[in-house]
Amino acid sequence: MPNLEHEGTSYEVDEEGYLMDWQVWNEGLAGVMAKEDGLDLSEAHWDVIRFLREYFEKYQIAPMIKILTKELAKKYGKEKGNTKYLY
Predict the structure, then answer these.
(1) How far apart are CA 2 and CA 36, in angstroms?
(2) Where in the sequence is the domain holding 54, given as residue range(s)?
(3) Sorted alphabetically, which Pfam families does this protein's record hold (predicted)?
(4) Secondary structure class of 60 (helix, strand, coil)
(5) 73 and 48 in one domain?
(6) Do 52 and 77 sit in the same domain of this protein?
(7) Nearest-10 crossing angle of helices 43-59, 27-36
(8) DSSP result, 4-57
(9) Helix (H) or strand (E) segment spanning residue 3
(10) Same domain, 31 and 47
(11) How many structural domains comprise the chain?
C-alpha cells in the first residue's frame, strides 16, 4: 500500500490515493491531498467538506444529494443549497 506523508506522520492510502482509515482524516491532511490533485480549497469547499464529515460521523453513510442540498440550504442559504452550486 502506498503512503502519504504529512507533518511527520505516514498515512496509508489505496492505489487511488484515498485514506484507508477515514478516522485519521484532518483538515491539514485534506489540504495536502487536494494539492496533490491540483486543487486549492476555498472556504466554499470547506463548508461542504465539513458538512459531509459531520454527516458521515453521525450516520456512517454519505448523504443522498437531495438531503445534502436541503441541509446546505438550511445552514448556508438557498444560493449554496442546490446542485448547480455543488457542481
Answers:
(1) 14
(2) 43-86
(3) DsrC
(4) coil
(5) yes
(6) yes
(7) 120
(8) EEETTEEEEB-TTS-BS-GGG--HHHHHHHHHHTT----HHHHHHHHHHHHHHH
(9) strand 3-6
(10) no
(11) 2
